[in-house]
Design brief:
Layout (H helix, E strand, L loop, with lengths): L4 H4 L13 E8 L3 H12 L4 E4 L15 E2 L7 H7 L2 H25 L6 E8 L6 H13 L5 E3 L11 E9 L2 H14 L3 E3 L6 E3 L4 E5 L2 E10 L8 H4 L2 E13 L8 E4 L6 E7 L2 E12 L7 H15 L5 E13 L5 E4 L6 E5 L5 H16 L7 H4 L8 H20 L16 E6 L2 E7 L5 E5 L10 E3 L4 E3 L6 E3 L4 E3 L19
Parallel strand pairs: 1-2, 1-10, 2-7, 4-12, 10-17
Antiparallel strand pairs: 3-6, 4-6, 5-6, 8-9, 9-10, 11-14, 11-15, 12-13, 13-14, 16-17, 18-19, 19-20, 21-22, 22-23, 23-24
Bound molecules: FE2/S2 (inorganic) cluster.
FE2/S2 (inorganic) cluster binds next to loops.
């Protein structure tokens, strides 16, 4: 399993799980950036709040991001203007600006040492053909009132034919920010319980959240779980992708501090993280749909080859590498608002490559909705919004049809070769007509569980890089033992008793 720069340079607090019943105004499921931002603002507004997470605080995708803070959305302005209109495009960019400003204010107000800094962002043309696209993005940004420009001077040594530059974007250490925020919240009475799995939410007034250690009753429930839970319509509107990041040690000052990404699909992205005595250059990309890469190591090989070529004869050292999951929304905009027909439930998901920015914005807007304040952009980010354009409709139909397609295609080995299974390897086979996922963990112990995803029944695939079982349909991920790591699945893969010899040869 890979470890991100952010996880490697912070300690995880040893906070207890929930072991009693609890009553609060608002229960937040998911202790990442959206959930903790929402908790911070609700606590300031005088609400009692509980934050529950099935894992540690800030240990999900908030720990596997590159933490680039930018108002430039994954969906280009030209697409947003064409698919919606200029007002929607401006609202999306304004959301990002609002979020970056908020993080800067919280960092200053709370005195959080998290390496926050303002940096410019570059969206650069990696081909001659892409120059006209980038120039159009500059024109649209200017027409919306943003100080964008076209430049030939780039901070990083990629092949480029010019770029959009936008000043006053940002970057930070996400776990230093979030863990400090969580500590302050606990000191102010917010109940934060890691390792507390919400197995069921009973709607009502109040709602009842069932966990193994106790029941939380709450007037409002917020799902900030990265992937939505118990809302399959919303699940069908996002597509899960794995992305890969490497961190290279270079001499300090080798490059100027900036965010950058290119026009390729999938795109490469760059930022830096200054350390004591050296700089780390973070380079990411090589995205693919979750559960659809048999050899994820090759993604890192390609990323390293790309970095090697870009850096030329500059000396560097590979320090960290990790993967993360991105949820791309069908029409390019995140989903932030009420959770379907549930009267007292709220949800946020589909932040694409802008997880830290839109996660923060989601926490702010969900707070407004809970406090029944006016939210000007509520319809734009409404999870139930209508009027999807042709591309988004195609996206939806593909996503809905995919499970059947995948299950039909899958051809597992009829006989397992457990003796040949090395630590870190996984294999799928059939036993008594059931698809079984079997893998050896790093210690050599064998684990066997059902290979059928507990969300909607697709067959999981082994991810040899992270030692996880990944579902190619909607992105659920499971530990080698079957425990849920990422939703939308709620329940672990069922354990299976093997009827074939487990001994190694
Ligand atoms: Fe939906 Fe697995 S995540 S079937």
């Amino acid at each position: 399993m890979t470890v991100s720069l952010w996880a490697a340079t912070t300690a995880t607090p040893d906070w207890p799980r929930l072991d009693r019943d609890l009553a609060v105004d608002v229960a937040i499921v998911g202790a990442g950036i959206a959930g903790l931002t929402c908790a911070y603002l609700l606590q300031q507004a005088g609400k009692t709040v509980a934050v529950l997470d099935r894992r540690d605080v800030a240990s999900g995708m908030s720990s596997r991001t590159t933490a680039m803070l930018t108002q430039i959305c994954d969906a280009p302005l030209s697409k947003l203007v064409k698919d919606f209109d200029a007002e929607v495009a401006k609202t999306a960019w304004e959301a990002g600006k609002t979020a970056i400003d908020f993080i800067e204010q919280v960092v200053a107000r709370e005195g959080i040492a998290c390496d926050f800094r303002r940096v410019p962002a570059y969206h650069y043309a990696s081909t001659v053909e892409a120059v006209s696209f980038v120039r159009e993005e500059v024109r649209l940004a200017l027409s919306l009132g943003y100080p964008a420009a076209f430049t030939d001077a780039l901070p990083y040594p990629q092949a480029s034919f010019g770029a959009l530059i936008l000043p006053e974007q940002g970057q930070f250490h996400p776990r230093r920010y979030l863990l400090a925020l969580a500590e302050r919240l606990r000191a102010r009475g917010v109940a934060i319980f890691p390792h507390t799995d919400v197995s069921r939410v009973r709607a009502g007034e109040p709602c009842r959240l069932e966990t193994p250690g106790g029941t939380v009753t709450a007037e409002r429930v917020v799902y900030t779980t990265h992937h939505p839970l118990d809302n399959n319509l919303l699940v069908s509107k996002v597509a899960a992708y794995q992305t890969y990041v490497i961190a290279l040690k270079v001499a300090p000052g080798t490059f100027s501090q900036a965010l950058a990404w290119d026009t390729e699909d999938p795109y490469h992205y760059w930022r830096q993280a200054p350390q004591d005595g050296y700089d780390l250059v973070l380079i990411g990309g090589e995205d693919h749909r979750t559960g659809q890469e048999a050899e994820p190591e090759r993604r890192f090989e390609r990323l390293e080859a790309y970095a090697r070529e870009a850096l030329g004869d500059r000396s560097y050292e590979l320090m960290y590498r990790w993967s993360g999951q991105i949820l791309d929304p069908a029409d390019g905009l995140p989903f932030i608002g009420r959770n379907g027909a549930a009267k007292n439930e709220f949800v946020a998901t589909g932040f694409a490559g802008n997880g830290m920015t839109f996660g923060t914005y989601a926490g702010m807007r969900l707070t407004d909705l809970i406090l029944e304040r006016e939210v000007p952009a509520a319809n734009i980010f409404n999870p139930d919004r209508f009027g999807l354009k042709a591309g988004a409709v195609t996206f939806l139909s593909e996503n809905l049809a995919y499970p059947t397609h995948l299950v039909e295609r899958l051809k597992p080995e009829p006989q397992p070769d457990l003796a040949a299974l090395s630590p870190g390897d996984g294999q799928i086979f059939e036993q008594d007509g059931q698809k079984v996922a079997v893998a050896r963990d790093a210690t050599g112990a064998l684990h066997a569980c059902s290979a059928v995803c507990t969300h909607l029944g697709c067959v999981v695939h082994w991810n040899s890089l992270e030692a996880t079982w990944d579902c190619p349909c909607h992105g659920s991920r499971f530990a080698v033992s079957g425990e849920v790591l990422d939703g939308p699945a709620r329940h672990a893969l069922a354990p299976v008793s093997l009827k074939v010899p487990e001994e190694r040869g």
